[in-house]
Design a protein that fits this description.
With 437 residues, this protein is an alpha+beta fold. The chain folds into two domains: 227 residues, Metalloenzyme, LuxS/M16 peptidase-like (Cytochrome Bc1 Complex, Chain A, domain 1), CATH 3.30.830.10; 184 residues, Metalloenzyme, LuxS/M16 peptidase-like (Cytochrome Bc1 Complex, Chain A, domain 1). Helices cover 41% and strands 21% of the residues. A seven-stranded mixed β-sheet has the order 1-2-3-9-4-8-7, with helices on both faces.
Length: 437
C-alpha cells in the first residue's frame, strides 16, 4: 500500500497516513522545521471510553452490560506486565515520559522523549498489546481506584459535576463518572477486563499518531514489524448499544450540603441537536466554540460584569456534544448565587454577536492554527481530537474559519434553547444559617 500524503491547507504542513492490513490507522506528522531537535510524541489510542458499557463481547452473540468505570480500570491495568517490569520503569530508564488517559469516547497511551525513539515505540506497541490480568492484580487495583473514587466524593467541584451529569442525562453513560462508582469498581472481574480488551483493543478500532523528528517510513516499519508478533487481524465488527437521549432533563434542581466557603454551581442546558441549522458536525462545533469565545471568554462583557460586581470568583463555560443532544454547561464558584443566576438568565436570553467581533476572533483563531503546526504535541493532540470526534483528520480548518459569517452565526444563536435546564448547588447550610441569623 502506498502511504497517503495529506496537505493541511493554508498552514504549509504535510502529514502522512497509512492503514495497515490489520486495520490500524497510522498518522505521522514530521516536523521538518525543527529536524535538529530529536523530540517525538506518540499517541496510541482506542475508540473505547466510559460511554461503551453495553456491547456484544468479541466471540459472543449477546449484548452485555459491564460495570461503569471499567474503561478507566482497564487503562490502569494495561501498565501491569507478566514479566514484572512496568512501563513507568522502562520509560524512566530511557529518560522518557509515559502516561495514559481515559475519556468518555477513548483511551490513549502517550509517550514523549528525545532519544531511543525506536525502542520506545516498540515498547509502547508491545505493552498495549500484552494484557495481563489476574484475580490478584485486579483485586489490588480495585482497592486503589475505590480509594481514589472515595476521595473524589470529598471534592466539591467533582461532586457538582457528577451530580449535574446524573441530573441531565437519563440514558447516556455521560450520567456516570469516568471513574465509575465504588460499587461498580468493586464488581469488575478479570473476565470483564479481557472481554472489554478483546472487543475494543483491536487494530481496526485503534490509531497511532506520531509527531516530531520522525521519518514516516521508519515509523511504519517499526510498527509493522512490532505488531507482527501479535497475530492481529482486521476485525471491525463491533456492536455497541446506542441510545436516543431524551431532551428533557432528569432533575431540574438539587442542593447538596458540603463544607464549602462559597457556593459551587453547575448548570446544564439541554437542547435537541435537530434544532440547529448546521448538520455538518465540524462546522457546528466551530460556531458553538466561537460563541463561547465571544460571549464567555476572558474579554467578554459578561465575564467583565460578573467580575466587577463580585458575583463569581471562578467560572467555566462550554458546549458538550452528546449524540442527539447539545448541552451548554456552566460551572462557577458563586459569591452571590441568586443575582448570578438572574444575570445569567438575562444574558442568555439576549445573546448577541457583532460582525466586527466575529471577524476579529476569526483572525486570532487562524493565527492559532498556523502557530500550532510548530509544536509536535499540539498538532498530534489536534489530530487525535479530530479522530475521536469525527473519525477523520480535518485538513481545512483555516478555510472553514474564514468562511464563518454573521448570518450563519445568528441562525445558530436563534437555535439555542435555554429553557430546559438542570441546576446543582453545592452549599454550606451552616454558613447560610449564620448569615440569615
Amino acid at each position: 500500500m502506498i502511504m497517503e500524503k495529506i496537505e493541511l491547507k493554508n498552514v504549509d504542513k504535510t502529514i502522512y497516513r497509512e492503514v495497515l492490513d490489520n486495520g490500524l490507522e497510522i498518522i505521522i506528522i514530521p516536523n521538518e522545521k525543527f529536524s535538529k531537535k530529536k523530540n517525538y510524541y506518540f499517541n496510541y489510542g482506542t475508540y473505547y471510553g466510559a460511554l461503551n458499557n453495553e456491547f456484544v463481547p468479541k466471540g459472543k452473540n449477546k449484548m452485555t452490560s459491564f460495570p461503569s468505570g471499567i474503561a478507566h480500570f482497564l487503562e490502569h491495568k494495561m501498565f501491569e506486565s507478566k514479566d514484572g517490569e512496568k512501563p513507568f520503569d522502562f520509560y524512566a530508564r530511557t529518560g522518557s515520559y509515559v502516561n495514559a488517559l481515559t475519556s468518555y469516547k477513548n483511551t490513549c497511551y502517550i509517550v514523549t522523549g528525545n532519544k531511543k525513539m525506536k525502542e520506545n515505540l516498540e515498547y509502547l506497541l508491545t505493552f498495549v498489546n500484552s494484557p495481563y490480568f489476574t484475580d490478584e492484580n485486579v483485586k489490588k487495583e480495585q482497592g486503589i481506584i475505590s480509594e481514589e473514587a472515595a476521595m473524589n466524593e470529598d471534592i466539591p467541584d467533582y461532586l457538582a459535576y457528577k451530580t449535574i451529569s446524573k441530573n441531565l442525562y437519563k440514558l447516556s453513560h455521560y450520567n456516570t463518572p469516568i471513574l465509575g462508582t465504588i460499587e461498580s469498581i468493586k464488581s469488575i472481574t478479570k473476565e470483564d477486563l479481557y472481554n472489554c480488551y478483546n472487543t475494543f483493543y483491536r487494530p481496526s478500532n485503534m490509531f497511532l499518531v506520531v509527531g516530531g523528528a520522525v521519518s514516516p517510513d521508519e515509523i511504519i516499519k517499526i510498527t509493522t514489524d512490532t505488531l507482527k508478533r501479535f497475530s492481529l487481524e482486521k476485525d471491525d465488527n463491533i456492536k455497541v448499544k446506542h441510545y436516543k437521549e431524551p431532551v428533557k432533563v432528569v432533575k431540574e434542581y438539587e442542593e447538596i450540603n458540603a463544607p464549602v466557603n462559597i457556593d459551587k454551581l453547575a448548570i446544564g442546558f439541554k437542547m435537541d441537536k435537530d434544532r440547529f441549522p448546521l448538520k455538518n458536525k465540524v462546522i457546528l462545533n466551530l460556531y458553538l466554540n466561537m460563541i463561547i469565545s465571544l460571549c464567555f471568554g476572558a474579554s467578554s462583557s459578561f465575564r467583565e460584569m460578573v467580575r466587577k460586581r463580585h458575583l463569581v470568583s471562578r467560572s467555566g463555560y462550554y458546549f458538550q456534544d452528546v449524540d442527539n443532544i447539545i448541552t451548554f454547561m456552566v460551572e462557577v464558584d458563586s459569591l452571590n448565587t441568586p443575582v448570578y443566576l438572574k444575570e445569567l438568565e438575562n444574558y442568555l436570553n439576549n445573546l448577541n454577536i457583532e460582525e466586527e467581533d466575529l471577524e476579529r476572533i476569526k483572525k486570532v483563531w487562524i493565527s492559532s492554527e498556523v502557530i500550532k503546526t510548530d509544536y509536535a504535541d499540539s498538532l498530534v493532540d489536534s489530530v487525535v481530537d479530530d479522530l475521536i470526534n469525527y473519525h477523520k483528520v480535518i485538513t481545512n480548518y483555516v478555510e472553514l474559519i474564514k468562511n464563518m459569517n454573521i448570518t450563519t452565526m445568528n441562525e445558530v444563536l436563534r437555535s439555542l434553547d435555554f429553557t430546559n435546564k438542570a441546576i446543582v448547588k453545592v452549599t454550606n447550610n451552616e454558613n447560610n444559617s449564620l448569615q440569615s441569623n
